[in-house]
Design a protein that fits this description.
InterPro entries: Bact_HTH_transcr_reg (IPR050679), Chorismate_lyase_/UTRA_dom_sf (IPR028978), Tscrpt_reg_HTH_GntR (IPR000524), UTRA (IPR011663), WH-like_DNA-bd_sf (IPR036388), WH_DNA-bd_sf (IPR036390). The chain is of the alpha+beta class. The chain contains eight helices and eleven strands. The protein has a seven-stranded mixed beta sheet. A two-stranded antiparallel ribbon has the order 1-2. A hairpin with a 2-residue loop joins strand 8 and strand 9.
Length: 254
């Protein structure tokens, strides 16, 4: 029987939901998902507690269940991005009808000569660095690091980043809107710490996205995003006259 804390500090159903989410992320239920009676016996709890945990997993889009039938794993909602368009991951997740929030891993004024050079700044320029774990439906979706010139982005230090868009806050607090940019997307084999943070089994790959955001010809944002490949896709339009170009790169470690 798994270790369940029965001291009352956390509801039993929440502990079961978190344990099941972790087991699902690790690929344990590649066949059939356990029935309610099996989960009840496994965790040593009442059927009502199991049903409440499953109800939350259904609301998170992780499992589905119909009346009179055992629960089974849901097909994850894929988040689609258009190639060649200025987009916001926050808006794309919202458009897919998925709840979302972020966990801030870093928010500070720092210096980084490599990033400053990419932004066309003096190498010792101050930068605002924001690092977030992005979650969609309570499941990790992406690791997101962004750097902006501190002289214009300092007001962002006071933002509650739990559930908001960088571009909305950049516009509202700093008066800056991106107007163009460059982006490179490549497939990669995630490092162990990335797999742990994103709940990715060893067999899964990720997308690594490097973005230079530009506002009225001025480089403003350097962003590096690692996103789960099983939840994200890119889409492109083309025609016979202009076509489109795709650069293929060898996979690397994220």
């Amino acid at each position: 029987m798994p270790a369940i804390d029965r001291s009352g500090r956390a509801p039993l159903w929440r502990q079961i939901r978190e344990d099941l989410s972790q087991r699902i992320a690790e690929g344990e239920f590649t066949g059939a998902f356990p029935a309610e009676s099996e989960l009840q016996q496994h965790y040593g709890v009442s059927r009502q507690t199991v049903r409440q945990a499953l109800r939350q997993l259904r609301e998170d889009g992780i499992v589905t269940a119909e009346r009179g039938r055992s629960p089974h794993l849901a097909t994850p909602t894929e988040i689609e991005q258009p190639v060649g368009a200025l987009y916001s991951l926050f808006e794309s997740v919202r458009a897919a009808g998925i709840s979302q929030h972020s966990v801030v891993r870093a928010l500070a004024i720092t210096t980084d000569a490599h990033i400053a050079d990419r932004l066309g700044l003096d190498l010792d320029s101050s930068l605002l660095h924001l690092a977030r774990l992005r979650l969609a439906g309570d499941e990790p979706l992406a690791l997101d690091d962004v750097w902006l010139p501190a002289d214009v982005a300092r007001p962002l230090l006071h933002v509650d980043w739990h559930n908001t868009s960088l571009y909305d806050e950049l516009d509202h607090r700093c008066g800056i809107r991106l107007t163009s940019g460059q982006e490179q997307l490549r497939a990669a084999v995630p490092a162990a710490h990335v797999r742990e943070l994103l709940h990715i089994p060893p067999s899964e790959a990720v997308f690594c996205i490097d973005r230079l955001g530009i506002s009225h010809n001025q480089p403003t944002e350097w962003r590096q995003t690692i996103v789960r490949a099983d939840r994200f896709s890119m889409m492109a339009d083309f025609d016979a006259r202009t076509g489109y170009r795709i650069a293929v790169h060898r996979s690397t470690e994220a």
